């Protein structure tokens, strides 16, 4: 089926209260997607955000981000005292510090008021989400140490998970552990209701799974043997990419690498558990940096940049054979951007997953695989991704030769500057089965509304959509769908 969708993170929704949430604005956005003839809502990873609020550096691959719990809904359901919620001011960018302060205050109030009356539901949640209490223990300990990385916890015994010390902290922090379980219960309660609503409207939720997990995460603390760590549980080698389109010195991500031999020895049980959990939350799952399963870039942890890493062979077909055997209904999209060699192409062909085409990359050379004429049916085409500039921002910064190639490929006038309609038409008209457009491009927004600049820290992940005339925008997208013979409007 030829389909289309939109890329917008939950936190970018125009919800009341300073940040996008799982409340009313999310339901209205699903209605817009349906009315526009689209069928896919793609978002960024939804775990608790880590360093610099990056959704790609989460403290858990299983948990949800409590900041997107809708406080208005809690008040309406009687889980917050009436009148206790006074929304943070709204604007075009998230004030994460203000939002976090209010969230902590009101979530603790909700916990004090409602934990006991929801005890039966919470026990059922813990039974169906067996990771929740271990995650809550991690976060309770982390909070008790002023939220510093677990790599720096002053109590070495709990850092290395000495069994008796773990029991001691479970007793000492029992209330705090219950609080973090409560947060996760509320997140998944609101998430599951939103997911059911999306299904009822024929809208598929598309998640995003980073290939790596954060060093400062419950995942690494709970299963250190699954990562390249030394006897003190510190990374030996870390993840990143060599110099590329985005950075002359490469990107030093800092995530610990997997001990792939140990994963293979367990039948990839950790991966199956991770993917099963995400497969229950989403209808489609984009795997970020898919090329790392074919070959991955390993940087000694002592290196300050990514210049002196080297490529290693990834788990390849063995991992995906196990995934297909145990999770046959999992719908994966491979983010195959970057250094795509024959090993990567062979693995993608073997798996049969759709890859990605990004139009902003199409005009850097004479015959790029991202050019519309080189697209393939089994793929997802984008104008740009969350790591790209907006299309208008990209165009304003493009070199003259890039603009010339773009004009020629898209049929623009020789000196034309109105690139966005042509890029949207190229995406929706592509032979690719699925076209996905960032919301910024549907709204025609410029560079200042970009979501992320790879390789930089601070100032990212902040953009929020202002209240929008969805009816007018839906008519525009319906026209694009109809012309591209996509979705419900072939």
Describe how the helices and strands are arranged.
Elements: E1 3-7, H1 24-35, E2 40-42, H2 71-76, H3 96-114, H4 119-128, H5 132-144, H6 156-159, H7 163-172, H8 174-200, E3 204-209, H9 218-222, E4 237-241, E5 251-256, H10 260-265, H11 269-281, E6 284-287, E7 295-300, E8 310-313, H12 317-326, E9 332-334, H13 342-351, E10 355-358, E11 379-382, H14 391-397, H15 400-410, H16 419-429, E12 434-438, H17 439-443, H18 470-483
Parallel strand pairs: 1-2, 1-12, 2-3, 3-6, 6-9, 10-11, 11-12
Antiparallel strand pairs: 4-5, 4-7, 7-8
Helix pairs in contact: 1-18, 5-8
What would your notes on this structure say?
- This protein has helices spanning 24-35, 71-76, 96-114, 119-128, 132-144, 156-159, 163-172, 174-200, 218-222, 260-265, 269-281, 317-326, 342-351, 391-397, 400-410, 419-429, 439-443, 470-483, and strands at 3-7, 40-42, 204-209, 237-241, 251-256, 284-287, 295-300, 310-313, 332-334, 355-358, 379-382, 434-438.
- It has 490 residues and is of the alpha/beta class.
- It has a domain at 223-354.
- The strands form two sheets. Strands 9-6-3-2-1-12-11-10 form an eight-stranded parallel β-sheet. Strands 5-4-7-8 form a four-stranded antiparallel β-sheet, with no helix packed on it.
- Strand 1 (3-7), helix 1 (24-35) and strand 2 form a beta-alpha-beta unit.
- Helix 1 runs parallel beside helix 18 and helix 5 packs across helix 8 (174-200).
- The termini are close together.
Relevant terms:
single chain; alpha/beta; 8-stranded parallel beta sheet; 4-stranded antiparallel beta sheet; 12 strands
């Amino acid at each position: 089926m030829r389909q289309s969708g939109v890329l917008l993170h939950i936190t970018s929704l125009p919800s009341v209260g300073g940040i996008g949430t799982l409340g009313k604005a999310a339901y209205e956005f699903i209605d817009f997607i349906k009315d526009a003839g689209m069928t896919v809502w793609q978002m960024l990873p939804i775990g608790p955000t880590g360093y610099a609020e990056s959704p790609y550096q989460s403290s858990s691959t299983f948990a949800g981000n409590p900041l997107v719990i809708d406080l208005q809904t809690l008040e309406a359901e009687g889980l917050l005292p009436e009148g206790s919620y006074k929304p943070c001011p709204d604007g075009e960018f998230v004030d994460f510090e203000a939002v976090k302060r209010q969230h902590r205050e009101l979530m603790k109030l909700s916990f004090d008021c409602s934990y006991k009356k929801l005890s039966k539901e919470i026990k059922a949640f813990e039974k169906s989400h067996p990771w929740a209490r271990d995650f809550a223990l991690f976060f309770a300990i982390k909070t008790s140490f002023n939220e510093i990385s677990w790599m720096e916890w002053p109590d070495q015994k709990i850092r290395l998970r000495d069994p008796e010390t773990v029991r001691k902290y479970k007793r000492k922090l029992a209330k705090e552990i219950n609080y973090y379980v409560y947060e996760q219960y509320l997140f998944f309660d609101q998430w599951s209701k939103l997911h059911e609503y999306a299904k009822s409207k024929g809208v598929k939720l598309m998640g995003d799974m980073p290939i790596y997990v954060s060093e400062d995460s419950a995942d690494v603390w709970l299963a250190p043997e699954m990562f390249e760590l030394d006897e003190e549980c510190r990374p030996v080698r870390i993840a990143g990419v060599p110099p590329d389109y985005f950075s002359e010195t490469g990107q030093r991500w800092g995530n610990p690498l997997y001990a792939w031999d140990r994963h293979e020895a367990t039948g990839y049980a950790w991966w199956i558990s991770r993917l099963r959990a995400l497969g229950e939350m989403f209808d489609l799952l984009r795997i970020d940096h898919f090329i790392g399963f074919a070959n991955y870039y390993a940087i000694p942890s002592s290196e300050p940049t990514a210049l002196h890493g080297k490529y290693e062979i990834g788990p390849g077909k063995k991992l995906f054979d196990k995934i297909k055997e145990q999770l046959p209904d999992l719908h994966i999209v491979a983010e195959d951007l970057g250094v795509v060699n024959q090993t990567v192409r062979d693995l993608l062909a073997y798996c049969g997953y759709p890859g990605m085409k990004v139009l902003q990359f199409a005009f850097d050379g004479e015959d790029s695989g991202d050019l519309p004429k080189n697209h393939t049916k089994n793929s997802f085409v984008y104008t740009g991704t969350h790591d790209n500039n907006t299309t208008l921002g990209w165009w304003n910064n493009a070199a003259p030769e890039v603009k010339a190639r773009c004009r020629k490929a898209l049929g623009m006038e020789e000196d034309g500057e109105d690139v966005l309609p042509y890029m949207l038409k190229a995406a929706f008209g592509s032979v690719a089965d699925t076209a996905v457009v960032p919301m910024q491009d549907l709204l025609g927004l410029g560079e200042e509304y970009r979501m992320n600049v790879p390789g930089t820290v601070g100032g990212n992940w902040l953009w929020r959509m202002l209240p929008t005339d969805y009816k007018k925008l839906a008519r525009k997208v319906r026209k694009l769908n109809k012309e591209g013979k996509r979705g419900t409007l072939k």
